[in-house]
Amino acid sequence: MRRVSIFGATGSIGQNTLDLIRRAPDDYDVVALTGASNVAQLARDAIALRADIAITADETRLDDLRAALIGSGVEAAAGSRAIVEAASRPADWIMSAIVGAAGLAPGMAALAQGCTLALANKESLVCAGALLIQTGREHGATILPVDSEHSAVFQALVGEQMDAVERIIITASGGAFRDWPLEELPQATLAQASNHPNWDMGQRITIDSASMFNKAMEVIETREFFNVSPRQIEVLIHPQSMIHALVGFNDGALMAHVGPPDMRHAIGYALHHPHRQKLPVERLDLAAIGRFDFRAPDDVRWPALRIAREVMARRGLAGAVFNAAKETALDGFIAGAIGFTRMSDIVAETLDAMDAQAGHIDATMTLDNVLNIDHLARKAAQAAILKRAG
Ligand code: NAD
Ligand code: MG
Question: Counting ligands in written order, which one lies closest to the CA of residue 327?
C-alpha cells in the first residue's frame, strides 16, 4: 500500500486524482486531504477514502468540517499552518494541487520529507523553482510534473540525453479569445473568460488560459523543470489541444506527445511512474480527428508571453513578483475592478515598481524572502489596480 496525500483535493486536479485512487482503493493508504471553502466535499471524500486527516485552509470552516466528520474517525484541522504540518506527515506520494502561491510552503514541506511530489501547482515553480528543486535534491525527493505540457516533455525525454535537446515546444489552445477581434478584448466578461474551448479546469487557470498568463507561467515552469535556457523554449498555438508538447533534438527529430485533453493522463503518469498503467482516458481516433492545426503565438493579443521573457531575463525573485502580481490582477478581474486586458498592464507595472525598489528582486531565494516579496508585490499590484480604478 502506498501512502498518499492530496493537497487541493477538492479542486479540479484534486478530484481527478481521487478518481484514479478510487479505482484501486486497496493500493492506497490516504493520509491527508486538503481543501478550502468546500468542506462538505472534503469531508465526503475523506470519509470515503478513510483519510487520516482532512484540513481546510479556511479557519472559519473548522466547526463545519468537524461536524461533517463526526464519528468517522477522520481528524479535522484548519489553517495554512495545519496544511504545512500535514505535508510533513509521512507519505510516499504527495499531489501538490493547491492553486496559487499558497501551494509553495506545503510543497517545500513535502519535499523535505523526501517523498515523490506530483507537482500541479506551477505557481510554486514560478515563484521559487530553484529553491524547490534544491530542497528536493537535498532530501532525496522526486518531483514529477503534472502540468500536461511538462508531463509530455518529461515523457518525450525518457531515455534521452539533455545535451541533445535543441528546443522544447509547449502548445497552447489559445484559450477563450483566440479568434476574437482584438478591439473587443477589453470588454471581455468574466463568464466569457471562464469558458475554455477544450479543457475542464478550475476557474483561475481557465481565465489564465484566455489571457495566456497560464502559458507564460508554463514557459518559466519549463525552464525550471528542465534546466534549459529561455531561448530554447517555444510556444505554439494548437487549437485542438491534443499535441501537448514537442521536444526537438540535435538530429532534427521532433518527439511529440499526443493524447486527449484529460488531466487524468498526466496525473496517472505521475502516480504510477516509473511504470505505465492502464488509465481511463479516451483513445484518440486520429483518422476521425483528421487534422491538427498550428500557428505562431501573437504577442499583441497575449502580452503575457512577452512579460514571461522579461521575467526570465530579470532572474532573482522576479518570478515571485510576476506570480503575485498576476494573482492579484486576476482577483481584480474576477471582482470586476479591472477589465480583461488591464491584467497584463498591472503585472508589467508591478514588475517595474518592484524592480525600482533596490534589494527586493535581487534578494537570496529563501522561503521567507519569497513569501516576503510575494506580500510586497501583492500590495504594489493592489495599489496599481486602485490607481486605475480611481
Ligand atoms: P481549483 O481552483 O479547481 O482547485 C484549487 C484547490 O486549491 C482547491 O482544493 C481549493 O480548496 C484549494 N485552495 C484554494 N486556495 C487555497 C489556499 N489559499 N490555501 C489552501 N488551499 C487552497 O484549481 P485546479 O484547476 O485544480 O488547479 C490546481 C493547480 O493545478 C493550479 O496550480 C493549476 O495551475 C494547476 N493545473 C491545473 C490544471 C487543470 O486541469 N485544472 C492543469 C494543469 C495545472
Ligand atoms: Mg498546462
Answer: 1
Say how many Å lie between the CA of residue 184 and the centre of ligand 1.
29
Ligand 1 within 6 A of CB of 10: yes
CA dist., res. 26 & res. 383, Å (int): 51
CA distances from 30 to 22, 82, 99, 374 (A): 11, 17, 21, 32
- Could you tell me the distance, in angstroms and rounded to a whole number, from the CA of residue 104 to the centre of ligand 1? 12
Q: Distance of alpha carbon 316 from its chain centroid, rounded?
A: 20
**Ligand 1 nearest atom to the CA of residue 122, by list position:** 32
Distance of alpha carbon 326 from alpha carbon 322, whole angstroms: 6
Strand partners, 30: 4
- pLDDT digit string (tens) for 257-303? 999 999 999 999 999 999 999 999 999 999 999 999 999 999 999 99
pTM over 0.85: yes
In this structure, how many other beta carbons lie within 10 angstroms of the beta carbon of residue 194?
A: 16
Phi, psi of 123 (to 5 degrees): -60, -35
At 320 the three-state DSSP class reads helix
Nearest to 325 by CA among 353, 302, 300: 353
Q: Are 93 and 118 in contact (CB under 8 A)?
A: yes
Instruction: Give the atom of ligand 1 at the shortest distance from the alpha carbon of 83.
Output: 20
State yes or no: pLDDT of 193 exceeds 90. Answer: yes
Ligand closest in space to the Cα of 86: 1
User: Which of 98, 153, 171 to probe ligand 1 with, by most ligand atoms within 8 A of CB?
Assistant: 98
The atom number, within ligand 1, closest to the CA of 10 reads 9
